[in-house]
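Before the break, one more example. Copy the sequence into your notebook; we will annotate it together after we see the structure.
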Amino acid sequence: MNPTTTWNFAAGPARLPDAVLERARDTLFVRGTDGASALERPFTGEAFRATLRRARERLAQLLDLPAGYHILFLAGGAMHQFALVPMNLLGGARRAAYADSGYWAQRAIAEACRYCEVVAAPGFEGDAPLAAPPAGQWDLPADCAYCHITPNETVDGLAYPALPDPGDIPLVADATSCLLTAPLDVARFGLLYASAQKNLGVAGLCVLVVREDLLERAAPAVPAALSYRRQAEADSCLNTPPTLAIHLAGLVFDWIAEAGGLAAMGAANRRKAATVYAAIDGSGGFYRAPVAAAHRSPVNVRFHLADDALTEPFLAAAAAHGLHNLRGHRQVGGLRASLYNAMPQAGADALAGFMAEFAGRHA
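Here is what the structure looks like once it is written out:
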């Protein structure tokens, strides 16, 4: 099957835009007149620094970045930040607030407990159906260094319908699966971080957007390469950065801008999600979504078959129809379709059509 009839619904590493793959092939993997490809040139040289500046400037444009924020391109993934956030943001405080919204929030909480006392911010409103923590004003202890949320839970298929207001406490978000999928008011946050392998590029890069005043909170013992302040001072190049991932992120940022920016991404993602959720809700109970309708993720559609015995036949038949990586996370089972920016509407249409056909044969 060719790329127009085969679809990758993996939660991450996820599908890249076709145009980005083509540009990478034509620009990153060819040698120039100096005998080096873009990936072989020193990160201290002007060629790579120009690439880094362009990626940062393009991302700042997409986010409509307010003054007083730094963009960092760091090696690793979001799980690194589960430890680096408290190491860099606690300052002299001993407590931080964390909201439990599902699997990845719980992983962040478990790591933070190694560095500070975790204060429970509002969590799930209920167990069935699943719902995100409530929005509105959160009454948190004033001595919390920050309040951490996970706005989109890839495992649970759950998303915050609105952001909370923690008052004067900086809001920190693991935005790995939702950054650049819709417009976002960056000024609401003290820190955003996101692994690249869902909407920004490939694994190995974590993008941070951090408010300048928070850079002064790092503990003295934080290693230099792990210090937000030191990396900001060194333009994300205190140590060798993940150059390939940064090159690709820059190409992805260009693609998003050329496609209409974050407003266009948000509209497209809502349409795709509506297509697949309609197939679930219109199946007469053959498929079931465990998340309350207003709290469903627009990019990670989680669902189950009413008859679990049909899950494996569904996956096998889907793969035969060119629909791949639909198995749900091992912690929750079932099925999951990730509809990140690079997934076109045609992929969502193909999945919805197959779901209706499979239900018709097995209902």
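The CA atoms of residues 89 and 217 lie 5 Å apart. The longest helix spans residues 261-281. Try to locate both features in your own notes.
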